[in-house]
Amino acid sequence: MLAIYKRELRSYFVSPIGYIFVAIFLIASGLLFSYCTLQAGSGSSVSTYFSTLMYMFIIVLPLLTMKLFSDEKKMRTEQLLLTSPVSLMGMVVAKFLAAYTVFAATFLISCLDFLLLYQFGTPNSAILLGSSLAILLAGAACIAVGVFISALTENQLISALGTMAILVFFVLTSILNGYIDNAVIRSVINWVSIMERFVNFTSGIFDFNAIVYYLSLSFVFLFLTVRVYDKRRWN
Amino acid sequence: MIKIEHLVKRYGDKYAVNDISFTVEEGEIVGFLGPNGAGKTTTMSMLTGFLSSTSGRAEINGIDILEDPISAKKQIGYLPENPPVYMEMTVREYLNFIYDLKGCTLNRSMHLKEICDTVRISDVYDRVIRNLSKGYRQRVGIAQALVGNPMVIIFDEPTVGLDPKQIIEIRNLIKTLGKNHTVILSTHILPEVQAVCDRIIIINKGKIVANEKTEDISKVFEGSRRLNVKVCGPTSSVLSAIRSVQGVTYAEVLGSHDADSTSYLVESTPGVDIRKMLFNTLAAKSWPIIGIESMGASLEDIFISVVDEPEQTTRKKRRRGRGDAEKEA
């Protein structure tokens, strides 16, 4: 399992994709941060920064996950992994963790921006810490979705677009709430929405339910990925 | 070492592998032979745990591949049809990755060096796999199967896409491996099994149609004796004279080589030596026999006859049919 993790992590940085991800993430988050908090009269706050960062996930996280399994399938190397003495869960988790490591490391680097806030004022540390934790967990859920989609296709583009589509559903559906009269549908949307649960953190509230939800979502999609491979063996 | 019992793989209502059973002893090299789509790769995939069987059992060294896949997979080195190499890695990185993936405990540098020397890839050890030729990639694939010194090595069409010199090298390599490992190799190239394997299993349409030692297989399937007889004399009368000899089941003209002699294919019932009778008959008519050659069934014939069996019930019929077709043409 460690072998797969190491190989996967390394493969991000022998191809351009790892650098592209890090560059896009840091540039976009940096611009966003300065626009939301540093510019005079922007009227925004760190809350807006974190929420918008979450929307950015829809575009950047599929970059990390699109090749995880689809490339193995295309290059016929998945036979190697599936006939080696590693459990399916081990294989899936190793790949998930490799993508997650790149994401988390990049996000933590972008957190250096917060030092500027302490330089110029006294920001609410609870909001910064809570939101960062929520970002890390919501990111895990989004990456798990990407891992699952990449196991379904051998085409990286389809993998990336499919992941985007599902992330749009999880992150953006809460926007529709204002247009829906039916209370039941609205509560369902609120329940599945990654975004809706994130809002509490941006107001400095530590929402334990949301944490459990993000972790469960990650677990469910990793489990589904294992099932995809299990089922393929039996078909 | 390897035991397969009533293995079945069904896709919908189509059987890819239909109830096959065989065993492979330690140190044996077994050739798995069959036309394309016969179920060779499916069987190997089930044996290596890549696919699950619909029913039946596959055991490696007493361990069921479905019950304890991880221990069973540790005993196997597998080279799939396409070498499963990561193009962006160097050979060194790749083999080290495999070493970690299989959780090897042997001395890393010595073990990998030994493998590279065996499959002769030491000279490309630090090159990126993407830049290697097909033959080298194939050898890297073989090296991968050898990492961890598994007891069973399974090769799926190991010589496809190689040049003749490389094919001979790989065959010799497989023979060498057979001394210390149990080897199963699948192929649709007949001379390959003949050159390398101790035993041949022929599979067709998901069923085993033959499972014999390489040296026995032609005896078992010979069925009738076949002779190539060269006679000087008028073709049609000689042919009818040959057909009249007791014990001859079938005769046909193969073609004239010289102005005055013609070659005939003569088949006789098993266990009867018709050569003396044939000589006497033709000598009586003063048509001299200037050559007799035994044609013992070649592996190709056996293969084709075994594989075609369901469509054409007897070999004789098949040959007659072919003769008619030629006449019409």
Topology:
The complex is a heterodimer of chains A (235) and B (329).
Chain A: H1 2-14, H2 16-38, H3 46-65, H4 70-74, H5 78-82, H6 88-110, H7 114-120, H8 125-150, H9 156-172, H10 183-192, H11 194-202, H12 208-234
Chain B: E1 2-11, E2 14-24, E3 29-33, H1 40-47, E4 55-60, E5 63-64, H2 69-74, E6 76-79, H3 91-101, H4 108-119, H5 134-146, E7 152-156, H6 164-180, E8 182-187, H7 190-196, E9 199-204, E10 207-213, H8 214-222, E11 225-232, H9 235-244, E12 248-256, E13 261-268, H10 275-284, E14 289-294, H11 299-308, H12 315-328
Parallel strand pairs in B: 3-8, 3-9, 6-7, 7-8
Antiparallel strand pairs in B: 1-2, 1-4, 4-5, 9-10, 11-13, 11-14, 12-13
Helix pairs in contact in B: 4-5
- Please state the average pLDDT score of chain B: 84
Q: Quickly count the helices of chain B.
A: 12
- Tell me which oligomeric state these chains represent: heterodimer
Determine the mean pLDDT of chain A: 90
The backbone outline of chain B, from C-alpha atoms, is elongated
Biggest sheet record of chain B: 6 strands, mixed
Record field, number of beta strands of chain B: 14
Hey, roughly how much beta strand do the residues of chain A contain?
under 5%
Q: Largest sheet of chain A, described in full?
A: none
Strand order, main sheet of chain B: write it out: 6-7-8-3-9-10
| Structural class category of chain A | mainly alpha
Q: Spans of chain B of 5+ residues with little confidence (pLDDT < 50)?
A: 311-329
Q: What proportion strand of chain B? A: 25-35%
What is the number of helical segments of chain A per DSSP (H or I, 4+ residues)? 12
Number of strands of chain A: 0
User: Gap between N and C termini of chain A, in Å?
Assistant: 25 Å
Cα end-to-end separation of chain B: 52 Å
Element order of chain A: H for helix, E for strand:
HHHHHHHHHHHH
Count of separate structural domains of chain A: 1
